[in-house]
Design brief:
about 35% helix; 11 helices; 2 domains; alpha/beta; 6-stranded mixed beta sheet
Length: about 375
C-alpha cells in the first residue's frame, strides 16, 4: 500500500500522523518485525465508519483506543477510511489477504453485510464489528443498546423543555433527535430518546430527523434548523460526523443541543450544548487488544449499555443550567436501569403504556 505524507489534526488527540490515500486513507503506525516481551508484536487493522476520522465521535474514539493500546501495550495498527458502504468489502479483503493482521476491526454497522459474506472465507482471521451482530465463529460483535445511548439525553430534554426560565426556551414542549441513517440501531436511538423525553413530560412532542449519512453536517444543520423553526428548543444528535451540523445550528439559533459519544460537543458550544451521552468505545477497543495479547479474545456477542457502565451522561463544562434535582433524578434512573427495575420499551407502540406503568419517574421540580 502506497503511503503519502499528509497531516491531519484529530479532535480527540493532538497528534500529526502520516496518512495514506487509496480511495480511503490509511496509516502505518509502527514498524515491523519487532518483539515485545518475547512475543511478536500484535497488529490490528481498523476500518472506520464513513464519517471518517476527525468526526469527534465513534471513529475518533476507536482510534484513541488503538493509540492507547499502542502506547501501553506495544501493538501496531493501520487504519482505512471508506468513502461509502460499498468500500467495506474491498478493505476487508485487502486486510485479510495481507495476512499480517491479528485482528481486523470494523467500526460501522454498515459493514455488516460485507463481513457476513467475507468472514467465513478467512476462518483463521479474527474480526470485530460494532453496532451490529455478525453470526460467525471468528467475529466479536460489540452490540450497543442504542435505547440506553439516548434515553438519558431524552429525559434531560423532556425535563428542560418545560423550563421557560432558561433563556429562549419556549412554552411548547417540543424536542428532537437527529440520527445519521435510517437503520435499526439508529431507530432504536430515536426510540430511547422519545421514551426518555416523554417519561419526563408525557405531552412532549418528539421530532425525528434523518440525515442519510454520517458525514453530512450541512444536511444535519438544515434538519436541526427545521426542528427549531417548528418550535423545538432542544435537539439531540446521534449522527456521527454529521452531528457537528446540529451543534453549529444550536449556536446560530441560540437554542440547545445534547451531544453524544464524547464531551467535544460541549467544549465546542458550552452555551448551547447541555450535556453529552458518552460511550466507552476507546476502553472497549483497548480491552480487545489486551485480550488479543493475552490469548483471551472471545468471539460472539458482547452487549454494551448503561447496565455495565458503557454509557454515561456528562454535563462537562456546559454553561446551560441544569437543576440539581434533575441531575439527581437522572442518577436515580441510572440506578434503576442498572438494577433492572426499569426496563425500556422495545417499540414505539409500547411507550404510552410504559409511561403509565412508570409514572413515578415523571419529572417535576
Amino acid at each position: 500500500m502506497k503511503n503519502k505524507n499528509l497531516y491531519k489534526v484529530f479532535f480527540i488527540i493532538s497528534l500529526c500522523l502520516l496518512l495514506t490515500a487509496c480511495g480511503g486513507k490509511k496509516i502505518d503506525s509502527g514498524g515491523s518485525s519487532e518483539k515485545s516481551n518475547d512475543k511478536e508484536v500484535i497488529k490490528v487493522g481498523l476500518i472506520v465508519g464513513t464519517g471518517g476520522l476527525g468526526d469527534q465521535n465513534f471513529n475518533d474514539l476507536a482510534y484513541a483506543g488503538l493509540k492507547m493500546a499502542k502506547d501501553e501495550l506495544g501493538i501496531e495498527f493501520d487504519y482505512s477510511e471508506p468513502q461509502s458502504a460499498s468500500d467495506y468489502a474491498t478493505y476487508i479483503t485487502q486486510y485479510a489477504e495481507d495476512g499480517s493482521y491479528d485482528l481486523i476491526m470494523l467500526n460501522a454497522s454498515e459493514a455488516e453485510s460485507a463481513l457476513t459474506e467475507l468472514a467465513p472465507n478467512y476462518p483463521d482471521q479474527k474480526f470485530s464489528i460494532i453496532d451490529t451482530m455478525v453470526d460467525a465463529e471468528n467475529v466479536v460483535s460489540l452490540v450497543k443498546d442504542f435505547r440506553d445511548y439516548t434515553f438519558l439525553g431524552g429525559y434531560l430534554a423532556g425535563a428542560l423543555t418545560q423550563d421557560t426560565s432558561i433563556e429562549n426556551m419556549n412554552e411548547q414542549h417540543a424536542v428532537g433527535i437527529v440520527i445519521g441513517v435510517d437503520s435499526p440501531v439508529m431507530q432504536e436511538g430515536a426510540l430511547g430518546f422519545e421514551a426518555g423525553a416523554r417519561l419526563a413530560c408525557a405531552d412532549t412532542d418528539v421530532r425525528v430527523g434523518i440525515v442519510g449519512a454520517f458525514d453530512d453536517p450541512a444536511t444535519a444543520k438544515e434538519i436541526t434548523k427545521s426542528i427549531y423553526d417548528g418550535g423545538g428548543d432542544i435537539v439531540m444528535t446521534l449522527a456521527g460526523g454529521s452531528s457537528l451540523g446540529t451543534i453549529n445550528q444550536a449556536k446560530e439559533s441560540s437554542l440547545y443541543a445534547i451531544g453524544c459519544t464524547s464531551e467535544s460537543p460541549i467544549s465546542t458550544a458550552p452555551d448551547n450544548v447541555i450535556a453529552s451521552s458518552l460511550e466507552s468505545l476507546d476502553s472497549i477497543v483497548f480491552s480487545l487488544c489486551k485480550d488479543l495479547i493475552d490469548g483471551k479474545l472471545e468471539y460472539g456477542e458482547r452487549s454494551l449499555g448503561i447496565y455495565n457502565g458503557y454509557f454515561v451522561i456528562s454535563y462537562g463544562e456546559s454553561n446551560v443550567p441544569v437543576p440539581q434535582t434533575l441531575k439527581d433524578k437522572i442518577n436515580e434512573l441510572v440506578g434503576k436501569l442498572e438494577s433492572g427495575e426499569l426496563v425500556l420499551p422495545k417499540t414505539k407502540n409500547e411507550i404510552d403504556s410504559w409511561i403509565k406503568d412508570n409514572s413515578e419517574y415523571v419529572y417535576s421540580e
